[in-house]
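Hi W.,

Here's what went into the run:
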Amino acid sequence: MPTTSPPDAGLAPRGAGGQAGAAPRPARDRDAAGLGRPRAAAFVTPALLLIAAFLVFPALWTIYLGLTDYRLTGLAAADPQMVGLDNFTDALKDDSFSHSLGLTLQFVVGSAVIGQAGLGFLIAWVMRNRRGALRRLVEALVLTAWILPSSVIAFLWIALLDRDDGTLNAALHTPGTAWLLEHPMLSIIVFNIWRGTAFSMMLYAAALGNVPPSHLETARLAGASGWQQLRDVVFPRIRGHILTNLLLISLWTFNDFTPFLLTSGGPEDKTEVMPVFIYKLALSNGELGFGAAISVLMLLINLVIAVVYMTLLRRRKEDAPA
Amino acid sequence: MGVLTRRAWAVTGVLALSFGVAACGSDSEGSGGTIELKIAANAISGGKNAEEADWIENWVIPHFEEAEADRGVDVKVTFEPSGVDDEQFKSRLALDLQSGSGPDIMSLDGIWLGEFAEAGYIKPLSETSPDFESWDGWDQIPEAVQQLAAFDGDLYGIPWGTDGRVLFYNKNLFEQAGLPTDWQPTSWQDILDAGEALGSLDGVTPIQLNAGTAMGEATTMQGILPLLAGTGEEISSDGSWTGASDGMEQALGLYEDIYGGGLGDPQLQQETQGRDKSFQEFAENKIGILAEGDYFWRSVVNPDNGVAPMEDRDEAVGYALIPAAQPGQGVNGQDFVSMSGGSVRTLNAASDHLDLAWDLLTFMNSAEAVTASVADTPKITARTDVNEQVLADDPMLTFINEQVLPITIFRPADSLYPQVSTLLQEATAAVVDGDSPSQAAEDYQDGLEEVVGGADHVTS
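Here's what came out:
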């Protein structure tokens, strides 16, 4: 999971200062480093080459593969044929594709948009005025879930949810309940909430620090209830953070492969979220061409998600008081 | 500026250096003319197929390196172990081979040959090793077993051995349930009756008949295919695949009887590690009857090096032939049926040292090497001379060799088979999940027509 800090877009601008950055700069600022065009080009070329080699080329290659019947083994591995858009039309007609897309949306909405963002905010809100051991303990626990390697985590969760000797069954006195088989989607959604809440928690904790205490104080004096304070004072202040957070965790969750470590997409195909679906198609069934086509579709869906959030963010900026 | 430039040079230098080092590392010819060969198999010391891994590491490699050193050839052989599901092993191998790398010698399941050959990852021995016919070992390998290594009439490697499928049963549980400990069912009804009797025991799953996709090929090989053979049909005959036939519905019907009737554990079929867990439960006296290949006897419940060892294996584990649905209803009018497969060792067509790799391959299949490989754990090898010596001591393998192999059938050597196999696994999964056998068979036929290229290639 990436550990980048949220982009500037999420940090609420204070007054006009934030807006100025977007406005065109005066001519003398355009070459602040004094490098000159050729030298500046020389500096960015290596980075552009790396991006071309590791991002642009694979993306184009995936689109190309998606137009062929390339397979991992067999005749089509030695001599793949162009099949045009067949893979894409087949995918859109394929029940297992829509099934997988539906599961992925459940997974994203359930575990990221509602689960991680909600729980992360709740923890950040409850802890906002606390200092000392309790806060450090809670933060440490939540962060631990985030930073441990996926394979270790998966092993722990399999042990937790195991049908015969699982910790959860022992704790709830429900011997013989196979959680991963009887409630597969619920299991991986809860798992992912637990796993990824830390990011939302930290981001919201930082955002809440930006809400001036005097505003909350004023609202309280005016007789606002807890919910009214949240709605009218806190949320407008941190709306940018919320959208940025939702954008990032939606995309991460959409592309998350970790559920595979818990369920391998099973039982049968009940947890076959999009990345697992593609993995199984391309590597287990060997249908590399078809898998590539679905990867492209997945990329497009990612773009749609990103565009929706970006539009919301931009509208927020336009709405923001000058 | 000056600092920047110097730093840029330093970074460039480090990058160039690391590319240079990486380039050196990818050379397969080590220092001083040592030739490096790599063997890969889905075997790992202390885990899956441990005896094979130990044999390669402790016998083959030192003996071969020594023999070559005596000839003045400096060879370094390494073993690349794996201990995963066969399907995962296959994916990994295929990916390695596709990128033009991969091991020099690899073990493949016989049914993968077609796919790998069509992709050009492996080539007929006549191309890779022109004088392959002069190897003296061929005389010892029966024609039927050689066919395991053949695709489209060409030999692609040397078969390692074969196996047979039977019903294993737990004599301890049979005794508790008041069943005979020298059990031999003669119809499917006999199996269900025994299951009913075992069902009266507390905490015991009467029957484990593999189903579902999580078990992979083990579902096809130990489950639906022997059942289909028991109805008198084969999965493919005369170039046509069997669709939603009467036999297919009848075979899926037995799944319904077992899993719908509470005689089996449906969840075990869905769990990711379900097959391993079923082994464990059998060894813990929790499963009464389990259909498996002789692999189960050799490598699973083997008290010495099995993955689920049973101290009292020789007394507690019984084995019986798989009956046809009704006596005489099996393929070729047989009363009992079985399925066989086997692995094949092949050369990587992209290997840099095909000659030496062929030497190593024949070395591994020499009578001496094969005998060493089965020293601790007898198994049915491809070589008649070795079998005559090693099988006599093991009643179970003698049983397979004398009673099962004569009635067994093989899977089709067709590159489409693995996809058909997946469809069969899905059909069994659907029945275990509550679909009716006729519905599951119908869905299977739909998928089959898509895979094999139309209804013309399907019989139902």
